Amino acid sequence: SAIIEIDHLSKRYGSGTAALNDVSLNIEEGEILALLGPNGAGKTTMISIICGLVRPTGGTVRVGGHDIRTDWRAARKLIGLVPQEILLEPFETVRDCVRFTRGLYGEGPDEAYVEQLLRSLALWDKRDAKTRELSGGMKRRVLIAKALSHRPKVLFLDEPTAGVDVTLRREMWQVVRELSAQGVTVILTTHYLEEAEDMADRIGVINKGELLLVKPKAELMGEFGKKH
Ligand code: ADP
Ligand code: ADP
């Protein structure tokens, strides 16, 4: 069943052109969905609205049945967001980072869960390291651990592999697959067809604020005339 229901969603910033125009989409529980589109297509706007960072101009979004306008507290408990930018407290330890975010979500301490999370992201050995000592890939995994600290059912990844080398890209791909296997719904944005193709079960193509089509990966690849 659908964990996220997007109905006739629109967004206009100020008096500018529509960043999103009448987008409707259901995201199914447990799937990996890629939102594919060029820069400026509206991808970040879409996930920012679902995550409550940007206010829609029109339309509705429900997360787990909760309308984000009227029932935001319940909706946001179900959501974790990994932002595009890596911004971490440089002198904080990995474990404290995750504890802190859990606290922000109003969740009490749960050391067993924090350990499980750090182990699953191959960060347990680095639990007492300060974030500034970590490699780029580890920092990205810390951001994922923070986003998962309150056990959301949906994880958003905004351009997870932008500016990342091939090895790191593979690593992100692994992490996403594992999360999905654990039952987390994953929504990622990308402007690389290859990335959407590698990672996702279903691909939505966005351009100029319009959701042009949403298809299972296999079908879409067929339509692109196939290169593999
Ligand atoms: P994408 O994530 O696909 O690159 P965005 O959602 O960031 O696209 O942007 C969609 C459109 O909305 C672009 O035309 C962009 O310039 C515009 N936009 C995004 N954020 C803002 C903002 N805060 N104020 C005004 N315009 C914005
Ligand atoms: P801005 O809001 O201008 O982008 P930031 O909030 O990114 O500034 O940074 C505020 C201050 O903290 C700046 O002096 C910046 O150099 C410093 N800073 C930001 N990130 C780090 C970091 N990872 N390590 C050390 N100093 C940082």
Automatic annotation (TrEMBL):
<dbReference type="GO" id="GO:0005524">
    <property type="term" value="F:ATP binding"/>
</dbReference>
<keyword id="KW-0067">ATP-binding</keyword>
<keyword id="KW-0813">Transport</keyword>
<keyword id="KW-0547">Nucleotide-binding</keyword>
<feature type="domain" description="ABC transporter">
    <location>
        <begin position="4"/>
        <end position="228"/>
    </location>
</feature>
<dbReference type="GO" id="GO:0016887">
    <property type="term" value="F:ATP hydrolysis activity"/>
</dbReference>
<protein>
    <submittedName>
        <fullName>ATP-binding cassette domain-containing protein</fullName>
    </submittedName>
</protein>
